[in-house]
């Protein structure tokens, strides 16, 4: 079945998605909560998932796509097992976040928005993460690394 190609695009997960839709569809403003749960379930929001949500909530596909692409929390592409966020806010940028990002891109051989071939890491550049006193800051999954220099990156990645 074509709907179920990909790492998490299984029949079982689509059944869970149908349950999420059913549980939320009578709720006002159901789309964003459904998208959040769907992304947790699949790891991203591919076309097949968006289409199922649109049909289940009886809303236009364009509305689902519009919301999914408007909010940076949502992604339409698969992400790595470990999501690396590099703060590019003013404090971090002034203290060398661009050099940290360059080192990550060099070591992982991917660009911002990319995922390594083995599916282990994804990199994103974010706005202020609210840890300006620790600038420059990188967050991997939910772990914050601060006061970084490019030479720290290889050692941090080796932990994963």
UniProtKB/TrEMBL annotation:
PROSITE patterns (UniProt xref): COMPLEX1_24K (PS01099)
Keywords: 2Fe-2S, Iron, Iron-sulfur, Metal-binding, Oxidoreductase
Molecular functions per Gene Ontology: NADH dehydrogenase (quinone) (non-electrogenic) activity
Catalytic class of the enzyme: oxidoreductase
Xref: CDD domains: TRX_Fd_NuoE
Keyword match Metal-binding: yes
Keyword Metal-binding in annotation: yes
Cofactor: [2Fe-2S] cluster
EC number(s) recorded for this UniProt protein: 1.6.5.9
Pfam families assigned: 2Fe-2S_thioredx
Family that this chain belongs to: Belongs to the complex I 24 kDa subunit family.
UniProt-recorded name of the protein: NADH-quinone oxidoreductase subunit NuoE
């Amino acid at each position: 079945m074509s709907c179920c190609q990909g790492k998490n695009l299984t029949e079982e997960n689509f059944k869970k998605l149908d349950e999420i839709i059913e549980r939320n569809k009578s709720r006002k403003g159901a789309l964003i909560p459904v998208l959040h749960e769907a992304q947790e379930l699949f790891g991203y929001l591919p076309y097949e998932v968006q289409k199922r949500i649109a049909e289940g909530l009886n809303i236009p596909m364009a509305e689902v796509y519009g919301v999914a692409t408007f909010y940076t929390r949502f992604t339409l592409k698969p992400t790595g097992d470990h999501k690396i966020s590099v703060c590019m806010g003013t404090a971090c940028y002034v203290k060398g976040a661009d050099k940290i990002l360059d080192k990550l891109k060099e070591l992982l051989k991917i660009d911002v928005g990319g995922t390594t071939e083995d599916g282990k890491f994804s990199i994103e550049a974010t706005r202020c993460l609210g840890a300006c006193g620790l600038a420059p800051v990188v967050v991997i999954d939910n772990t914050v690394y601060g006061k970084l220099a490019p030479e720290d990156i290889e050692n941090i990645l080796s932990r994963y």
